[in-house]
From TrEMBL:
Record domain PucR C-terminal helix-turn-helix: where: 464-519
Signal peptide (from-to): none
Species: Metabacillus arenae
One Pfam family this sequence matches: PucR
Annotated ranges, domain Purine catabolism PurC-like: 10-128
Protein name: PucR family transcriptional regulator
Amino acid sequence: MLRSYITVRDILQRKHFERIKVIAGNQGLTRLVKWVHIVEVTNIRNLLKGHELILSTGVAWKEKEIFISLLEQLIDSQAAGLCIEIGTYTSSIPEEIIDIANRSQFPIILFLKEVPFVEITQDIHALLINRQYQMISSLESYSQVLNKKLLTIENYGEILKYIQEYLHIQVIILFNSKEIQFFPEAAEYERKALLNVIERSEKVSSSSSIARIPIDLLGDNYAELIIISNDRSLTEFDQLILDRTATALAQFFLRELYVAEKRKVEETEWISSWLDGDQSEDSISEYLSFHMPAIKPKGGFVCLCKLDSFEEYSDLDLTYFKLYFRANLEQRGFSLFAIEKRNTIIFIILNERSVSTWKNRMKEGIEGLLGSEVKIGENKLNPLIGVGRYVEDLVNIHFSYQTSIETIRIKDRLSSTQTESYFYDDLHIFRLISLLNRHLDLKEIVLEYLEPVIIYDNKYNGKLLETLKTYLSCNGSKQETADRLHIVRQTLYHRLQKLETLLGHDFMNHEKRLAIEFMILSNEFLISSKHIK
């Protein structure tokens, strides 16, 4: 590759520079040269744009103070260097000038014989213009190579390796996931030093040794591509190469996301059909053999995780949650498939250990998840979790799915004090209540049994319904009921008398008592569901 920049050292190899002497700023010979000026004035600060090589006879700055002022202007203006013709107007350079130039690594070159400045400028300008044309050609060739690579490569690292070898600089890519890649690879101490350079550059408006560009996908910042040079200033050509590379990377990442999304859609469709009961035993066995060849499941079940404000979570947040849940359960003998539907993550969980212990292991996994300090986005994990019925034959996983939906439906309507279990099998009476509520007017049935008590409590701000529930749960023990309600027995007797008046003296008879207890729970279910006020 043709080098994309010209330095002072390169210029010194040209014609008319055979008889020269570098008397100061040897360490600055790597400075870039973008143009050449002949200067014979004392005030040039506003005439320079940076990286100019200055040619002069020194006729205007014979006095040391004027010379120092000119030198400081050149240094401040980021000039590339100063070439002075010795003999006609200048015979020697003061030591103070040499010291200032050395401290700033600013080259001062002496022509030891008279030289034609016009021919020098023509030669160097022709070189610069020709180099610019060649750079444009090189940029086009670079872009063509990148386009060809995009058709064949399988890893973005090949693109980063290509720009690193092309420009001979350090390449770093920072992903929004906090992952960092270095090309070439760097030792730990080198990584820290490079990251410090990047951090410092963020606080400085410009830096000639570092260039960076964001990689945007679908309107969002996906990563940032950075190049750093330790031995030269970066040029516009480096910036153009960086821009072309970032574009190629964006195309590669977009293609990868598309392929991943397409694969995800295909997997989601298959798992959805499994959850709907549309997959045969053979197709399930074939799918598991392909995706999880090492496992021998003894059955499985479905677990739903319902998240509030689902749209607030990014794909990265949800992926992290699924990975954490997977890691939590895999160590307890489970394997998982996961898909997302609306505001719910659906896990098909396969059991590889004893069937008799699956429930305890699953409970430990859920409690470990909820008790952790893991966050999704800015929020601590707090999903509503429902586990469906366990099935030994995986072709029946749709039964577990339906019961997990019912579990979520019930838990979503009840308070945590009413049902603390995550499992469909533990909901017992609430399963019947939920079923009745979907097929009958449960509110009407509840009022048939409890309306007098509800009306009395609303009218007198009483606590008859609470007393009735506690009395029934204590199996009619007056002493235990009074203790639980923290009331004296005389108050309890008065309330029980009122309940007999409202419900009938037979409200403690076996069949009626069972019905009343069922209606009390149904009433709480409806209140939690906001169907009764």
